[in-house]
Design goal:
Layout lengths: L13 H12 L2 H13 L3 H29 L3 H8 L6 H33 L9 H13 L3 H18 L2 H28 L4 H9 L8 H14 L6 H7 L7 H29 L10 H11 L4 H35 L3 H21 L17 H28 L2 H8 L9 H26 L4
């Protein structure tokens, strides 16, 4: 019998892994971030560049992370230690664990907002939001309250802890098998409803119509950054999930399937939002406030507004929860593997500490002046965390993962892991070139751009 503090668990099936890994990748980056990025950067032009980067950068890095995880059967720190013993490479894994913890702290704040909006839609609180001013007042009142954002963040963190405490198969996989099918059904129903709205075809034209003149350096860099952020790359989530994947499973098709689902969800989110937006006369370039400020007024201009609002914000809650689960699991797996903690103690302790780190972000949206944009930092605390960890640390992590697989551990060793069990890896030569040269150069370009321009995603 393996002691509890050493028991890591495994996914019970390839289907369960794909749902869990897809859930990790599918999050607010798809339903919230992708639509407003597309809206701000020209619609179809951004979408096309994003799709190219998912294929050329996203899938290769996913496979690199999965191969590291499954070959080592360890958390990010233990994985680098096992594959490069006696070296400094475990520091890269520690960066990933730290990054996951910090991102979870501010991500759970935004996730809490989705919970608040779901409550408002269920209780009829959004029914009176018929103008931009009323919507802005609702949003500002919610995030600027001294107590409500903390309570919403605590509730979301509690949901996350309960699932992760259940373990890999009993918690994460089981929750994914329930949440992800519900998520897909809601997504498809809303997409069909949106496409049938009068004037909705204009929204589809904006999303998928292509105009070369709209492709700028900013569009290209933003699409590349979105591809990395959306797929949860560079923070060790795929290394962790890969370590729970049995070696009999086909790594290549599993990784490609996760990327396919993630990208499809982002596009379907656009199909939901832009036809509805154009049908109601909304602004596609509304920015980060798109789903919280703009969409409530859009829903109230549509037939069946209450049901549509409940379905949409349920979608957001599920997307956020599947991501927070994977972020917490990265940190929990490290303390189980490397520190010998039991899963229960690790989950509750780390979830509580992460909540404490989230409190300044929750208070930085208007409740506490010194943490806001008008305070000492010049940016609000949530924004600072996003810049440090969601921009710099995430990019640096992805860069070193590519360098590790391409030049330290080696393409040959990684390819053998992908082909383990006799699985065909037909894209091996192209993948090796992408991981060794193209992916590192692309990530360095992101880093150079944000350092030079101070223009963050």
């Amino acid at each position: 019998m393996i002691p509890e503090n050493l028991e890591r668990g495994n996914f019970g099936s390839r289907f369960g892994f794909i749902l869990a890994a897809a859930g990790s990748a599918i999050g607010l980056g798809n339903i919230w971030r992708f639509p407003y990025f597309a809206g701000e950067h020209g619609g179809g032009a951004f979408v096309l560049v994003y799709l190219v980067f998912v294929v050329l950068i996203g899938i290769p890095v996913i496979l690199a992370e999965l191969s590291i995880g499954r070959a080592s059967q360890k958390n990010p720190v233990g994985a680098f230690r096992a594959l490069a013993p006696g070296s400094a490479w475990p520091v890269v894994g520690l960066l990933g664990v730290t990054c996951a913890f910090a991102i979870l702290a501010f991500y759970s704040v935004v996730a809490g907002w989705t919970l608040g909006y779901l409550y408002e839609s269920l209780t009829g609180g959004l029914s009176g939001v018929t103008t931009a001013e009323k919507s802005e007042a609702l949003f500002s009142g919610m995030i600027g309250s001294p107590l409500l954002p903390i309570g919403l963040t605590a509730a979301f963190m509690l949901l996350t802890v309960v699932v992760v405490r259940g373990g890999v198969s009993g918690g994460i996989e089981r929750a994914s098998k329930i949440l992800m099918p519900v998520f897909f059904v809601l997504l498809v129903v809303l997409a069909v409803r949106s496409m049938t709205l009068p004037g909705g075809s204009e929204g589809l034209g904006f999303l998928f119509g292509f105009d070369w003149s709209k492709i700028t350096v900013k569009v290209v860099i933003s699409a590349l950054g979105q591809a990395l952020f959306s797929l949860s790359l560079g923070l060790g989530a795929m290394i962790t999930y890969g370590s729970y994947l049995p070696r009999r499973e086909n790594l290549w098709t599993s990784g490609a399937t996760v990327a396919f689902f993630d990208t499809s969800i982002a596009l379907l989110a656009g199909v939901i939002i832009f036809p509805a937006l154009f049908a109601a006369g909304g602004d596609p370039a509304a920015g980060p406030g798109l789903v919280f400020v703009t969409m409530p007024t859009v829903f109230n201009a549509l037939p069946g507004s209450t049901l549509v609002g409940v379905a949409f914000y349920s979608l957001l809650v599920i997307a956020a929860l599947t991501s927070t689960i994977s972020l917490l699991e990265v940190v929990v797996s490290y303390f189980i593997d490397e520190r010998g903690w039991g899963r229960g103690a690790a989950t509750w302790t780390l979830g509580s500490l992460c909540f404490l780190l989230a409190v300044p972000s929750a208070l930085s949206q208007g409740a506490f002046a010194s943490l806001s944009r008008d305070g000492l930092l010049g940016r609000d605390f949530l924004d600072v965390q996003n810049i440090v960890f969601g921009n710099y640390a995430l990019s640096i992590g992805a860069l070193f993962i590519c360098l590790f697989v391409g030049w330290r551990w080696g393409i040959a060793a990684a390819a053998r892991e992908i082909e383990h069990g006799g699985h065909l890896f037909s894209m091996k030569k192209a993948w090796s070139v992408l991981v060794r040269f193209v992916c590192p150069l692309a990530v360095l370009t992101i880093l150079g751009f944000i350092i030079y321009t101070q223009d963050y995603f």
